[in-house]
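Let's do one together. I've listed all components of the complex below, 861 residues spread over three lines.
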Amino acid sequence: MSESTPQPTNSVAGTAARPFFRPWTLLAGFVLGLGLMCWAGRTVIQRDLHPKDVRFHPMIAPDSQYEPTMGEMRAFVRARCRPDQILVIVGGNSILLGVGQPADRVWTRHLQEVLGERYAVVNLAFRGSSPTDGGAFVAESLRDEFPRQIYIANVAALQAADSIGIESYRFILFDAYYKGLLLPWAPRDQQLKDYLADPAYKAARFERRLGAQADAVLHFRDFWNWWSATKFFTFATPYQPDPNLAYRARAKFKDEETDYDTLPFDQRFSPSVIANDTLITRAYSANGYAKNAQGLWQLADASREQFLRYAANAFPDQLKPRTLILISRNSPYYTRQLEKDLQNRDETAIKDTIAGFEKFGYAAMSYGQDFSPEDFGDRTHLTTAGGAKLAETTAPKIQALATQLGYLK
Amino acid sequence: MPTALRKFWDQLPSPTATLLSHFGSLAVGVLAAFILHYVLYRIGLPSIPFIYVAF
Amino acid sequence: MIFTTYWFFAFTALTLAVYWLLPVATLRWWFLAAACTVFHGHFAGPAGMAPIVVLMAITYIAGFSQKKWACLAAIILCGLTLCFYKYALFFIGIAIEPLSSGLAAQLSDGAKKIMPGAPPLGISFFAFEFVHYLFEVRRGGEPIRHPVKFLLFSIFFPSLVAGPIKRYPQFLAALETGSRQILASNFADGLRRIAIGFAKKVAIADNLTFLIDHQQPQFATLGLFDRWVFLAMLAFRILLDFSGYSDIAIGVAKLFGVDLPENFNWPYLARNIQDFWQRWHISLSSWIRDYIYIPLGGSRHGPVRRVTNGLIAFGLCGLWHGPAWNFVIWGLYQGVGLALCATYEKIPGVGPAISGVFKKEPTIGFVLTQIFVWIGWLVFFYPVAEALKMARLLFGL
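Okay, and this is what the predicted structure of the assembly comes out as:
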């Protein structure tokens, strides 16, 4: 490659005009710059970007177009768990995130208090997430660094859990996968392959994959998340449209979760919400159940097989024993209004779900059977009191699991 | 380049101009990398935020 | 936007690497042509590629024949194709709907069955480039005989989607020069230009877009100063977005050693409307001048024809931006501005006085020009009624 084109003459002085830019130096600067940015991304993401936070609240979550990276979440964990502690990562959805519980009274804090210093509880749940998303991938990626770990997630009865998670949080899977942080797991690898090959979305998904592969080398998401969290956010988002706040560094935002305790019980359930949630509650275990000859609720074979397939494939086999699945119940405000028959169906579904997960080596339990309506802020989310009860309910199971897995030796 | 600036540039002693041009080029190259690094981050973000609907 | 995809980055990097490694110019043309085809296919799909492939073939053959009637027929076909894909539903709506809504519905349904979901990628640009080519060949210009060079002229990927609108003699000369020798300066200049384009578009324009979209519904409740700030944001958003995109296109082309025409030259420094249109979307305004305004007669037949030709040219210029009345009105608004600019000095009495004021205080002309242009953006972006309301509110009315 030649240096440059012949230079125009300076008609004033009659001599060759002196160029300012030196092509090779500029190119060297570009390469150097890219290298620096890549190195910076890898370096800055090692530190905890959210030291004051107990969970990924909306201003540091996809709700506000902030997509936490694997590096960021791993640093979040490392800052909260010493190597001598048993790591308890709480994944799952808004229920385990603690929607309705302010940060200083979120249920995972209570769980930490109950479990004590031998354990470190880290909340990596996300709104609308599936059991296999987010925190699940973080836990898996830290399996060597924190071999004594327990991962907790929640499902509704017989809820499917794709090994590749859901679309909204697929960025976490891609980040983990293309940085080589996950275990090889044939069902998940195949599912990812099928996902990428879907002709209806091939171009868009290929685009996403390219981005993840480029990020694995250049670490742009790591660097610019660090920048967005600590310096300023670089664009406005509908979640925070106020121009005075839109560009504020995300670490400066507080976790301002709604506090269900401030909402009087009789105001928690409005007529339109009640109507809608009643329908949902009635349908909780509707799929696949029919009465058998003995008049007992029985799951259809096809439904059972489908659920068991999901349970078998959701997590790699090595990780199933350390995974605790919590089966979420609806608020007794609704379930007490159900006919006895439907209540029985729900209980059967919950038992079948637990049995199905345990068949593959998971730990599983339900919660909420002895909760009161006041423990719920809405159909599914718990108040502080409900969260405390959840912590009390879950802690013994975690401790038993830790013993079973030999973590306490 | 504005005429006054061009005149100033042309009249700078050669070693100074060379040093400035190399330094400037290096800086611009690094800046270009900085911008493209940011663009790679920005284009990977969703165009709309995740809308959480409790159900 | 195509430039803001990982595919585009990967495609450009890979194509560039192979392009550089190829030892001779001819191989580079063939390879670049194949790459441009892949690019077009990826973003347009087979349905989107079909119109351009057909038009390309017809334009090439017509140009090759150098027969005036063939070139004219191909020009008409290009125009009709553009009108069909981009304006059929609009024309049905304005011409047929008032007479017979049933017939309009039938025609619309029929058109939608043939048309792809969106107009073919870059149709506004390649139709104009083909018309330019055929016009010049018909006028005696040398046709492009090399099919690969013609293909490159037609679907050169950096300028395919959003211009600049190329002129074939300059493009071919640039292609031949640029492909014969790989220069570090081309790459460095291209990279700089691309970085500037992305900074304008992604870092600034996209943020302005959000602020504008957020504030527009509350425009009436904003204070007078804030309304003008809004207008400034609107004006700078379109400049930075569009010129940023042009910068990226020019920068990417430069990586391959090809110089594309400049599209913007500090338009918000224009001292009058004529000056503005020599600085804004230069490749389009010069196309409109050369292939609509001058063929209509330009300024050769007196002031009335001059103004009429200008209004027609700019009305079509507005329509080119999109099948909607506000674009046409924006075009006519600009046409009126240009007409005034060209003729105000001849207004008896006041004309020379105003001209004297502008000469004495050029700032006044500059400010008036920018106010005129920026208010014009209201019509460009918003429905006419809304734009008029916003314009009144700007003056506290």
